[in-house]
Write a structure and sequence with these properties.
Pnp Oxidase, Chain A, three-stranded antiparallel β-sheet, globular
């Protein structure tokens, strides 16, 4: 079965992702690119990965170099467009230049990494970095990418979908309330 590339891309666009800027130092210059293919790889050691089109300019600079991944907040449309190749003079890009790699200032989370490994991924390269530094602003909303457009997260939904799973931020902690949250069930309902 042959998969049409355009249809495949459209189908992938149905998976909502965050929007990040991957950046590194290249000599005296700082280079960056907008990337939505970012993921956690490992907690121990702390590893993250980005997937980049091997034809992209950032791939020329990223190989074997420390890099930063900045997660953009919901108001950072201009920054995302700027690093996607559509210069936005009003974006006012500022850098946080640390000892490992430069990161875009004002992100809601930042992962500064040393190179761990690079893997072939067809027309993409997967760059895995070992996280050296992190920062985050837990109450800010992320910029999302879905269906080819930028979105925001929308209203909070009730409930905690990952309770009692290993993905829960509370795993390993007795998070259960001391008093039942739900009304007591009758014997018949049990």
């Amino acid at each position: 079965m042959t998969i049409d590339a355009r249809e495949f891309r459209t189908c992938l666009g149905q998976f909502a992702t965050g929007v990040t800027i991957v950046s590194c130092r290249a000599g005296e210059a700082v280079r960056g690119a907008t990337v939505n293919a970012f993921m956690a790889v490992s907690l121990d050691p702390p590893l993250v990965a980005v997937s980049l089109d091997r034809r992209s300019r950032i791939c020329r600079y990223l190989r074997a170099r420390p890099f930063a991944v900045t997660v953009l907040g919901s108001q950072a449309h201009d920054t995302a467009l700027h690093f996607a190749g559509r210069p936005q003079p009003e974006a006012g890009i500022e850098w946080v230049d640390g000892p490992t790699a430069p990161a875009v200032a004002g992100g809601i989370a930042t992962f500064v990494c040393r190179p761990w490994a690079t893997y072939d991924g067809g027309d993409h390269l997967l760059y895995v970095g070992q996280v050296q530094e992190i920062t985050h602003l837990p109450n800010d909303s992320p910029l999302l990418f879905f269906g080819g457009t930028f979105r925001d997260i929308g209203p909070h939904m009730a409930g905690i979908p990952w309770l009692e799973t290993l993905d829960s931020p509370m795993s390993g902690v007795d998070w259960r309330p001391k008093h039942p949250v739900l009304p007591h069930l009758t014997k018949e309902a049990r």
